[in-house]
Specification:
173 residues, alpha+beta, 6-stranded mixed beta sheet, two-stranded antiparallel ribbon, 23% helix, 38% strand, elongated
Length: 173
C-alpha cells in the first residue's frame, strides 16, 4: 500500500456538509520527505472537511511533538507544535494555486492528497529559533561541551575592524 493513501481524502462520494477525519503522523511520514528539518515526530491531525457544491473547505487542527536539531548545540530537540490552518480547494478545469490557502483542482479528481500540505504547515509551525529551553535556574539544557567550545571560540574571535568604524559612527550620532 502506498504510504500516501491514508492522506488521500476521497471527497467524490461524500454528501454535502461537514465530515471529520483523524490522522496520526509518525516517523514514517517524515522519512518520505527528502529535505525535512524534522527528524521524527508524533503528531495528531484532526481534519474537518466541509463539502460544498464546487468547493472543499479543509480545517486542520494540529497537535504533537516533533524532533529536530538544536540551532545552538546540534543535539536532538523535541518541540511541541500546535495550531490551526485552513485550505480551500475549488473544483475547476486544471491544477492551479490561486494563493497560499486556495487551490484549484480538476473537477474530475475523486480525492485530494493532503500530505504535502500537512508537511508544509508543520514546518511553518516551527519557531524561527530552535534551541533547548533553559532550566528553572537559568542554565541552558544544551550540550555543555558544545557551549564551552562556543564560548572559547567567541572569546578568541577578533571583530572585523570595519565594524568598529561603523560602531564609532553610530555612537557619535
Amino acid at each position: 500500500m502506498d504510504w500516501r493513501e491514508q492522506f488521500r481524502i476521497p471527497f467524490s462520494g461524500l454528501k454535502f456538509g461537514v465530515h471529520h477525519f483523524d490522522l496520526k503522523i509518525d516517523n514514517t511520514f517524515f522519512d518520505h520527505f527528502e529535505h525535512t528539518e524534522i527528524k521524527s515526530g508524533s503528531v495528531e491531525i484532526h481534519l474537518e472537511l466541509e463539502k460544498r457544491e464546487r468547493m472543499l473547505l479543509f480545517d486542520f487542527t494540529v497537535n504533537g511533538t516533533v524532533s529536530l536539531l538544536c540551532d545552538r548545540c546540534g543535539e536532538p530537540l523535541d518541540l511541541v507544535i500546535t495550531g490551526n490552518e485552513r485550505l480551500i480547494v475549488k473544483l475547476g478545469n486544471e491544477y492551479l494555486e490561486e494563493s497560499e490557502e486556495v487551490l484549484i483542482i480538476p473537477e474530475t479528481d475523486k480525492s485530494f492528497d493532503i500530505s504535502s500540505f500537512l508537511y508544509e504547515i508543520m514546518h511553518l509551525m516551527l519557531p524561527a529559533k530552535r534551541v533547548h529551553s533553559d532550566k528553572i535556574n537559568g542554565e541552558s539544557q544544551c550540550n555543555p561541551e558544545v557551549l564551552k567550545k562556543l564560548k572559547e571560540l567567541s572569546e578568541h574571535h577578533s571583530p572585523d575592524p570595519r565594524w568598529e568604524i561603523l560602531n564609532k559612527l553610530r555612537n557619535n550620532s
